[in-house]
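Teaching note: in complex prediction, the entire set of molecules is handled at once rather than each chain in isolation. The prompt given to students was simply: 'Predict the structure of this complex.' The entities are:
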Amino acid sequence: MGAEKLVKDFEAVVGTGNVMTSETDRHAYSYDAAVLDSVMPALVVRPENSEALGRTVRLCNENGIPLTVRGAGTNLSGGTIPHPGGVVVLTNGLDRILEINEADMYAVVEPGVVTATFAAEVARRGLFYPPDPGSQTVSTLGGNVAENAGGLRGLKYGVTKDYVMGVDFWDVNGELIKSGSRTVKCVTGYNLAGLMVASEGTLGVFDKIILKLIPPAQAAKSMMAVFDTMEAASETVAAIIANKIVPATLEMMDNFTIRTVENFRKAGLPTEAGALLLIEVDGHPAQVEEEAEKVETLCRKLGATDIKVANDAAERNAVWQARRDALPALAKLRPTCVLEDATVPRSMIPAMITALGEVSRKYDVTIGTFGHAGDGNLHPTILTDRRDKAEWERVEKAIDEIFDRALAMGGTLSGEHGIGLAKSKYMERETSRATLEYSRRMKSVLDPKGILNPGKIIG
Amino acid sequence: MADIHRLAQMLKELDDQLVNCMRCGMCQAVCPVFRESGREADVARGKLALLDGLASEMLSDPDGVNEKLNRCLLCGTCAANCPSGVKVMDIFIKARAIMTGYLGLSPVKKAIFRGMLANPRLMNSLMDIGARFQGVFTKPVDDMLGSSCARFMSPLIGDRHFKPLARTPLHKIVPELDTPAGSSGIRVAFFVGCAVDKFFPEVAQASLKVLEKAGVGVFMPPNQACCGIPALSSGDSDTFDKLILQNVQLFREGKFDYLVTSCASCTSTIRELWPTMFGGNASLRYDLSLLARKTMDISEFLVNIIGLDTKEPQGDGVVTYHDPCHLKNSLGITEQPRNLIRAAGCEFKEMNEAGTCCGCGGSFTVAHYDVSRKIGSRKAQNIMDSGADIVATSCPACMLQITDMLSQKKAGIKVKHVIELYAESLDG
Ligand SMILES: Cc1cc2nc3c(=O)[nH]c(=O)nc-3n(C[C@H](O)[C@H](O)[C@H](O)COP(=O)(O)OP(=O)(O)OC[C@H]3O[C@@H](n4cnc5c(N)ncnc54)[C@H](O)[C@@H]3O)c2cc1C
Ligand code: SF4
Ligand code: SF4
Ligand code: SF4
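The expected output is the structure of the full assembly:
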């Protein structure tokens, strides 16, 4: 079929203004937030309603054209880098919140709704949607489900998958598949909604998502604890959990990150400190008081040299500002910033920290480490200049070794950023040949022409 | 287009700045144009990727890139919020100059910038004629559009609700001033700016009155030229350089402690762009950075240098404030204008999204009136929702855009410069 005919067909489905063909428009959808080479799509299509989305998928399948769905394009693993000659389908025209049910505490949304917009709307109704990826002001809920995005509250409140009650999605033939329900319990058939979580656009295209909501905590208390060493800080993390306290957030920063953030904001952080823990407990006011006290005692017992407890909203914000500043401050140091995502069991955090130090020295690359200590999800952030070929080669080797080390500790390739193109080559190392084959067989049946985001996750 | 390599070469000079963009996409949250269109090429990340693609010769369509580059308000919101500290404004302005150098300036713009803007006397007389005949000669004026930050004529198009040119521009009312320092012991140079001169002489008069009452001496040379931002943002750096030269020669004549303006765009241009973007004589660049350091927005000057007496609210009318991009994003000035409103004895009420661009963006509103109007009408709605009787701001360009938008909604809300409110309060 001729290219012009195809453009006309897409225009008939989504309207003339919603098919982009110019070189410049296509180039603008050739990349995402991952540090990878860009690939130009042949077309960019922007459906504005559910039916048009379904017909778009079908049209791609009929013509055997690779299709990559794109929310905000903030994923860090190359999940939205298109296949050569493929079509990029934008979901940001599908951005309606269809229902927020206060009585039954769930919501139904289209995939293009921006995470923070949704969370704010839910909060306005007196409810709470906890997943809060750092990109929430721009990321979409469709992207969050497809990546199983996490956030600062993962430790106590879980990640996106813990809030997905159902997903309606288009299969390659443009048929609408329904999964899950509006009820808390549901065991109708295969757990297809579960299968869609973290599928990165390779198994179906989300049309509607049903999300669980919960009541917000009544009170919260934040504090910042200063330690001489990362070891002492990570032992404290383990001790807090061992004492059956589950903070809403439990974040860690290494000395390099502390100094960088302090340079950036001059907020009075202790630049001599080996590590900082940023802790927030929340819940019923009485419980919050009690837990905050226990956490403070534990920190002191395990070697905290100083503890600052936030007394009001402004002080609480200052604590979290330091954490929010970590990535921006590091990102300013060098031209290229590779944000990694290796995750280890909580108890292995001290070992992982040591390993990162060794990798950094061995390959002579700068690594700043911060992250979700509470759930073992560290973000070693490598600062480099991709144009420097020699250095970039060392960086790639360092990344390989970081994953090897994490896997050897019983960890995983990705805590929250997904596999995409960036890490598909490591998949077999963590799982097995058979696992990959199983996944590929499943995909080949559901998507016989292999049009759904080819190349991602399982290669 | 034989020589796309040359273009690529010129763009490569921006490489060091371009690579700092880590493509995180966080600028999507704040870009007013992206909010309306949802198109990646409209947000900073997309534009930077396009420039990068052109520099590495991955793209073959400079006209296409140029067109996308111009779909931007140059509001600086992306730069102010970029986690990576990418100097987006710097890049965009330099890129526009490079692209214009390569693709050429449109004949209309050439006529405006080189023929008129660079020749203040000629421009003044043409505009005087325009002011007298604007009702009659819509068409010739319409042609002059293409350009300016204050978009002098653009309101005359279509169904806009425009603010007409002032009957008598400031340069006719007060051609020049040179008064000694009074009780404050301070003397300032006053830079009028074209939009204030031609649309809002009352803003300049209010500024001069406040300065006089504060015992501040004023040096205001005649025949001041435009600050150059319209030319520069259209990529015409030659005209920009000429305008700077003309102004510097005028202001060199006087002795003053500060240079004060009542136009946010002029303030940020003189402070940020004169020293960095002037392409002429290197020795002059030093003078320009000295001058930049002395340059202040009028409310910043009054609050930081003179100090304000606070007044009890008078209770007649609620005032809200719109942050001009050029004060908030470029210079980080947000508190002083609000203090000025309070010091004028007005009841102040913050509106939603006060710091979001009004959608004017100089020639943007001319070339992309549909998007500009959507952005502006959201601003107007926020103003109306605040329940204010008056919206004050610090930039004449914003005043024009907001007047257009409020008038279309028949809001019945007055648009004023903060200095007008303060000047009025001095009578009481
Ligand atoms: C500064 C920054 C901070 C970040 N912080 C976090 C963090 O704290 N936690 C975290 O988990 N991640 C984080 N991320 C990564 C990223 O933001 C998340 O992965 C996010 O979920 C991606 O959402 P998106 O809308 O941008 O999706 P995109 O990047 O557009 O797409 C992601 C994947 O989802 C697929 N997809 C999108 N929509 C659909 C649909 N409708 N149907 C099927 N598949 C679809 C795409 O094909 C792609 O494979 C961060 C990224 C940045 C740049
Ligand atoms: S300009 Fe800044 S905010 Fe936008 S993508 Fe680049 S680094 Fe991110
Ligand atoms: S300057 Fe303003 S309009 Fe232009 S890209 Fe940045 S935020 Fe968007
Ligand atoms: S008129 Fe004001 S708010 Fe509007 S674009 Fe210009 S500076 Fe920004």
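Point out the following to students. Residues A 32-33, 68-76, 79-80, 91, 111, 133-135, 139-140, 142-144, 146-147, 149-151, 200-201, 205-206, 327, 416-418, 453; B 24-26 surround flavin-adenine dinucleotide (ligand 1) (CB under 6 Å). Residues 106 and 212 of chain A are 5 Å apart (CA to CA).
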